[in-house]
Amino acid sequence: MEGKAGSDGKYRAVIEALAEGIVLLDLDGTVIDCNPGAESILNLSCKEILGNKFSGIGLDFVQENGAPFPKKKLPYAITLGTGKTCRNVVMGLSRPGSDTTWISVDSEILSSQGHPFAILVSFSDISLRKKHQEELQQSYSTLRELSFRLQHAREVERASVAREIHDELGSALTSIKFDLSWAVEKMDDKAEFEEIFRALDAAIQSVKKICTDLRPAILDDLGLLAAVEWQLGQFGRKTGIRCKIETRGKEPAVPQDVATGIFRIFQETLTNIARHADAANVRVRFQANEKDIVLTVSDDGKGIDPKRSAGSKSLGILGMAERAEALGGTLVVHPARPRGTRVELSVPLERRTSRRATVSSIP
What we know:
The chain is of the alpha+beta class. The protein is built from 11 helices and 11 strands. The chain has a 6-stranded antiparallel β-sheet with strand order 2-1-6-5-4-3, sandwiched between helices. A 5-stranded mixed β-sheet has the order 7-8-9-11-10.
């Protein structure tokens, strides 16, 4: 008896020393034991708890979304009803006039010689950890918002620079060429000016290329699908890779910032194929309706290691995913069959956030 008493004393000392809350229920759900940790977290004394049904001690639990926690889905209720063990269930302990205490709860059956005799409910206060997680998430959201605004500002600036170069420098070069042509017509020896004309033509073409690289006019003039088809054609001619595009559905009206974001992701995808894939064929599928746009790019190259695509070295893929997320969409990169890589971008046209409504459209 002394051995058992000593063992029980050690058990009691350990339980009472724990900061974690411990509540013991009988198989009817009545509280038969608790420790100081439980008193502290629940803000109730053991005298107030003992002998009562755990469901009847006046505690209100909420889910992480703020909705009431269904009583049938509380960990101890599941364990009582099914005998299943519950682990790491996060719930909020709501009290009038005070902040919600967030706890992580475990519940399990205690048995002796194969016969259950009690339910052990243990819980720890994770309010501080959850606060830090929320602050981290808020910081992440703020950084994403900043990234979106920077991307938007960059696109606005690129469009402005492209217009300035086209209107000012392009017009000036063209005017010089015409003036020079008019002057040369009056001269007998025109051959010595051929090199100058070739240089002028090259300069004019360079201006056009710079303007197109900054912001292709086709994106604003003819829309996203036309820009994708044009970019794919340019890519095929430059790399020698065979390209094919398949379209499904009629392209709806696409907000300019969305069209720009999708187009930039498409450009980066083609750049990655040219640099890394060693592919012979690229297939693009453009699916559109009033609700969303799905753009899929598949190649038959050497493929991508899933571990590498998730690693820190794949900053290009990370940037594409961040841009997709800023549009409210998703970007998935995975191996294609029988070989190669498939990039699938899905962007909703029904805006899921209101933050971009405060940003003016790209001119």
